[in-house]
Design the sequence.
């Protein structure tokens, strides 16, 4: 999310994407075969919570919002997860701002490193992924074919995209926009998350930094999940 600098965009409701487990999205190109899904991580599971900050600095100001994230559902087979994100000290909002987001896990089967939507070009993708040190060993293969031939099942990091879908507890006039999305890198060893927000109409490379704060005790995992 980011400060909403365009008054014309306020009041527009974000559509909610319907996810059906029997129609999982597939990447184009060669079939990677019966590749196993990414291994479950005890720190990337339904109910797991994270806390940290998002840097929203731009030319006029510099600030960091306190951010809480909770994962609500995970479907590794289809490269999908969802959750909520709470910003606690948003200057223009009277209360913490909570959004619902849906995520794509880059697994080479359901999703590659190339976004292909949300106004992100392949050049935008590479600029953002390359900011993660853990991406460096993969960069050459990704530039070659999007990373379809990479076996990420045992890689110590999981790469994702998080797209906020709608505001949970406030209206669209809260002073924020959720038009963009996050490039996300999750560490399987300690559960830390780093990310960069992308929106061509917002200040670039707003950094998200989160640490795990609990062992997940609530939430749900699913083989079939539909949001309406």
Sequence:
């Amino acid at each position: 999310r980011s400060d909403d600098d365009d008054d014309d965009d306020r009041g527009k409701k974000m559509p909610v994407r319907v996810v059906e487990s029997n129609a999982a999205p597939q990447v184009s190109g060669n079939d990677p075969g019966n590749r196993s899904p990414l291994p479950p991580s005890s720190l990337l599971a339904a109910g797991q919570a994270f806390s940290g900050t998002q840097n929203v600095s731009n030319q006029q100001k510099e600030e960091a919002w306190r951010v809480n994230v909770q994962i609500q559902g995970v479907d590794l087979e289809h490269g999908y997860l969802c959750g909520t994100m709470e910003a606690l000290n948003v200057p223009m909002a009277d209360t913490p701002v909570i959004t619902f987001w849906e995520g794509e896990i880059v697994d080479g089967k359901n999703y590659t490193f190339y976004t292909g939507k949300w106004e992100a070009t392949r050049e935008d993708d590479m600029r953002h992924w390359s900011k993660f040190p853990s991406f460096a060993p993969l960069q050459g293969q990704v530039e070659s074919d999007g990373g379809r031939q990479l076996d990420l099942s045992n890689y110590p990091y999981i790469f994702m995209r998080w797209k906020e879908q709608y505001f949970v507890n406030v209206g669209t006039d809260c002073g924020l926009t959720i038009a963009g999305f996050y490039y996300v890198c999750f560490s399987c060893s300690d559960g830390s998350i780093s990310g960069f927000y992308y929106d061509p109409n917002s200040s670039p490379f707003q950094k998200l930094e989160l640490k795990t704060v609990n062992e997940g005790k609530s939430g749900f995992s699913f083989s079939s999940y539909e949001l309406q």
Q: What stands out?
A: Residues 128 and 227 are 29 Å apart (CA to CA). The first strand starts at residue 2 and ends at 3.
